[in-house]
Design a protein that fits this description.
The structure holds 2 protein chains of 2 kinds. By secondary structure, chain A is an alpha+beta fold. Chain A has one domain: 2-Layer Sandwich (hypothetical protein PF0899 fold), CATH 3.30.2320. Helices cover 25% and strands 33% of the residues of chain A. In chain A, strands 2-1-6 form a 3-stranded mixed beta sheet. A 3-stranded antiparallel beta sheet of chain A has the order 4-3-5, with no helix packed on it. In chain A, helix 2 links the parallel strand 1 and strand 2. The model of chain A has no long low-confidence stretch (mean pLDDT 90). By secondary structure, chain B is α/β, with parallel strands linked by helices. Chain B is built from 9 helices and 9 strands. A 7-stranded parallel beta sheet of chain B has the order 5-4-6-3-7-8-9, with helices on both faces. In chain B, helix 1 runs parallel beside helix 4 and helix 2 packs across helix 9. The longest helix of chain B has 16 residues. Chain B starts with a strand and ends with a helix. The chains are: A alpha+beta, B alpha/beta. Chains A and B meet through helix 1 and strand 6 of A and strand 2 of B. Strand 6 of chain A pairs antiparallel with strand 2 of chain B.
């Protein structure tokens, strides 16, 4: 995915929020990344370090929580979690279908890239 | 935007709850609303470099241009080669050159849609930049999205790109006339695509031999 572009928006969004609250430093940013975005948390961390240099975010901690994927079957209505292999491998191949009836599914959760909260120094 | 909770120690915590990917979908939805206001349907074509996206659009244009007023938008890093190929088919075409951007995005499309006479248009066919991976994550607002692959990409293209095929409603497999030469088992390739997303509609086509084009055209339009 496009980790640098997304992370530059994380940095600019936090800077704007910090300015609105007259903060002098950002201490911590809490981020939720859904597994179905396939954003790589390690690359987001790297981009965050690079992009926060020289800003009031420099040296702050980026806490990344990974959110599991969830789908709902369009045929039988069953909601299920979409089990994905751990980062860095893709075995076995995930099947994008209902585990109960193999019907077509829609995504309920897992597509988020959400800034949940920020810790600021006044 | 944020709400102060309380000072805890010497720092403050604010809640943001701002989704950074949502903006793409919001912009895409705005494009869709604009198209819907004019009763225009948009179909997006995605796929690697050289799979035959432009050739397939040419074939579809020949079949559909008598029934629909069509405009084609071609995305490429450089050149107006694709635009010229479409213009030669007798319909309007606009070329977007992205320089080094590997995909089109909803913001770019918004600007293009503003330049078109949507009153006089029935159908917009958008050819994304040749790239199998990135465009999928950047919705434009199209009513239908079609992935174009070809047997010249080898037999493992679906298995090696499951995250792309997971969300594809329509897949065209082009150059089936070359399957024997490429030693690609078409049945196995289709099976791989269906294993990743059983609801996907797969259309084997050959632009060169004009095979399967009618079936694909009938599945894509009219857009409900």
């Amino acid at each position: 995915m496009h980790e640098f572009g997304i992370t530059s928006r994380i940095v600019s969004t936090v800077m704007q929020a910090a300015a609105e609250h007259n903060a002098t430093r950002v201490l911590e940013v809490e981020l939720l990344i859904g597994r179905l975005t396939f954003l790589n948390p390690a690359q987001v961390q790297y981009a965050y370090r690079v992009l926060s240099r020289g800003t009031i975010l420099e040296g702050s901690k980026l806490v990344v929580e990974e959110g599991e994927g969830a789908v709902r079957c369009r045929r039988c209505g069953k909601e299920s979690s979409l089990e994905l292999p751990p980062q860095g491998c893709f075995e076995p191949l995930p099947s994008f279908s209902c585990p109960a009836c193999a019907g077509e599914v829609e995504i309920l959760r897992g597509k988020e890239c959400l800034i949940k909260g920020v810790k600021l120094l006044p | 935007m944020g709400t102060f909770i309380d000072g805890r120690g010497n720092f403050k915590e604010i809640e943001l709850k701002q989704d950074l990917l949502q903006d793409h979908w919001t912009l895409a939805a705005a494009n869709r609303r604009r198209l819907d206001r004019f009763g225009v349907k948009m179909i997006e074509f995605m796929g690697s470099v050289g799979t035959g996206k432009t050739s397939l659009i040419q074939q579809l244009v020949h079949r559909l241009k008598n029934d629909y007023s069509i405009t084609v938008i071609n995305g490429d890093l450089a050149t107006t080669i694709d635009q010229e190929r479409i213009l030669a088919c007798g319909v309007d075409a606009l070329q977007i050159n992205t320089g080094k951007e590997c995909h089109l995005d909803a913001a770019t499309l918004k600007g293009v849609l503003e330049r078109l006479d949507l009153e006089q248009t029935d159908l917009i066919l958008v050819e994304n930049v040749g790239n199998l991976i990135c465009p999928v994550d950047f919705p434009l607002g199209a009513h239908r999205r079609l992935l174009v692959i070809s047997v010249t990409e080898g037999p493992y293209v679906a298995l090696k790109h499951p995250t792309v095929f997971m969300e594809m409603e329509y897949v065209a497999v082009n150059k089936i006339d070359l399957a024997p030469v490429m030693d690609v088992d078409l049945t196995a390739l289709v099976r791989d695509i269906m294993a990743i997303r059983p609801a996907t509609r797969v259309f084997p086509v050959s632009c060169k031999e004009q095979k399967g084009i009618g079936e694909l055209a009938a599945a894509l339009v009219p857009v409900q």
